[in-house]
């Protein structure tokens, strides 16, 4: 990538931390980072484009172009083919948001945002907890060479019980007090 430096910079002091106005070009760091950097400096902050702009990763040379238009639009081109475009004020976080969450408002304590609740009429069937999760395999047979003196009393292996339905939970019903998801009111940003 290249850095376009602001007027008045000292060439003798140039280094990695030198201020720049624009940084633009491909950034390929192994397989983790493969993108085209488009960083604009605004009010002392380096702002990376919010979009993931692709870059070429083959072994050929490519021409990267960044065009900034007077109407605050831009284009990113690779080999003179437009691969990205948009509005500078929308694709970089230069301006504060037009609307913000009203700091004077918060979700009411009695707001109900659970759409479903356990049915209070649904009762656990009698004997439900008596059904074991595992049962002895009814098809298992004691091996012919089993010796109770040496091996102890034979017990069949345990298998999942087809009648076991898991921990009992009441069915869920629509919550009559449900008000929907709470949406934080927005106000004009005073900045």
TrEMBL record:
InterPro entries: Calret/calnex, Calret/calnex_CS, Calreticulin/calnexin_P_dom_sf, ConA-like_dom_sf
Keyword tRNA processing tagged: no
Biased composition (Acidic residues): 138-154
Chain spans, region Disordered: 89-191
One GO molecular-function entry: unfolded protein binding
Keyword Mitochondrion appears in the UniProt entry: no
Keyword list, A-Z: Calcium, Chaperone, Endoplasmic reticulum, Lectin, Metal-binding, Repeat, Signal, Zinc
Subcellular location: Endoplasmic reticulum lumen
GO terms of biological process kind: ERAD pathway; protein folding
Regions that span the bilayer: none
Main location: endoplasmic reticulum
Biased composition (Basic and acidic residues): 113-127, 166-177
GO cellular component: endoplasmic reticulum lumen; endoplasmic reticulum membrane
PANTHER family the record matches: CALRETICULIN, CALRETICULIN AND CALNEXIN
Family: Belongs to the calreticulin family.
Record-given protein name: Calreticulin
Organism listed in the record: Pseudictyota dubia
Higher taxonomy: Eukaryota, Sar, Stramenopiles, Ochrophyta, Bacillariophyta
């Amino acid at each position: 990538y290249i850095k376009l430096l602001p007027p008045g910079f000292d060439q003798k002091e140039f280094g990695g931390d030198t201020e720049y106005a624009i940084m633009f070009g491909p950034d390929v760091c192994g397989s983790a980072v493969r993108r085209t950097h488009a960083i604009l400096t605004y009010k002392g902050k380096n702002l990376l484009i919010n979009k993931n702009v692709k870059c070429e990763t083959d072994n050929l040379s490519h021409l990267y172009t960044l065009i900034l238009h007077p109407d605050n639009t831009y284009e990113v081109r690779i080999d003179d083919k437009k691969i990205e475009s948009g509005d500078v004020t929308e694709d970089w976080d230069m301006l504060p948001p037009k609307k913000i969450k009203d700091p004077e408002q918060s979700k009411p304590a009695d707001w109900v945002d659970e759409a479903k609740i356990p049915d209070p009429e649904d009762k656990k069937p009698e004997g439900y907890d008596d059904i074991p999760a595992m049962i002895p395999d009814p098809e298992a047979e004691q091996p012919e060479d089993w010796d109770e003196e040496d091996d102890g009393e034979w017990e069949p292996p345990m298998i999942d019980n087809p009648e076991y339905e898991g921990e009992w939970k009441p069915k869920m019903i629509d919550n009559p007090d449900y008000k929907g998801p709470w949406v934080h009111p927005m106000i004009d940003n005073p900045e």
